[in-house]
Design a protein that fits this description.
The protein is an alpha+beta fold and about 220 residues long. It has 2 domains: about 35-145, OB fold (Dihydrolipoamide Acetyltransferase, E2P) (Beta Barrel); about 150-210, no CATH class. The protein has 5 helices and 14 strands. It has helices at about 5-25, 65-80, 105-115, 125-140, 200-205, and strands at about 35-40, 45, 50-55, 55-60, 80-90, 95-100, 105, 120, 150, 160-165, 175, 190, 195-200, 210. A 5-stranded mixed β-barrel has the order 1-2-3-6-5. The protein has a 4-stranded mixed β-sheet with strand order 13-10-11-14. Strands 4-8 form a two-stranded antiparallel sheet. A hairpin with a 2-residue loop joins strand 1 (about 35-40) and strand 2. Helix 3 (about 105-115) packs parallel to helix 4.
Length: about 220
Amino acid sequence: MFTVKNFLLLLLIPSLILNLWLFEKNKPSLTGIRVEGVIDGDTLVLEGNTKIRLRSIDAPELNFCGGEEAKELLEKLVSNKDARIEEKIVDQKARPMALIYVDDILINQKMVESGWARYHSDNTSQRENLKQAYEEARGKNLGIWSDQCRQTTNPDKPECKIKGNIDDNSRNRKLYYYPGCPQYEFTVIEKDMGEAWFCTKAEAEKAGYSKAKNCP
């Protein structure tokens, strides 16, 4: 028996078919996506103004040591090229990130190999390759692992000896050390992470650092 309900369903079928066709037509492809720009050393802008981060790596902020170098390298590797996106997930801030390939070259790995990006352990198919690239770059003192960004003495202003250190376990805790502090000799300034040298205690405190408790 042909009912009004059946009639309405017949009317909806063409619309459903059209919507399905439009979805398939506009659905983002995981292959051959044009890279339209680079924001920094670990973030791309894909066609359609879609931002995506390189999974398992972390490049310095642009205003930190190595930030501009990382961005420049990434631009050379991907700008105006077609990329393949694999193993896409979102991070804790709901930002998409993935393994990015250009001409079968894993861009994530190239950035780590250069030394201009840190590797963060992540459960991907390329985990061991990325880890090895990280170990080799660090062993060769490349990029952020060189004394350009990683320092125990101040090459630019030797008279400014106060070390501003950001705690590894809590990136919000900023402490400063000066000669005479028990940990001073062992404290490394990682300028790619925003750590810095200071000439006076007042200068360090103005920048948000507090004196380490074990300092005299």
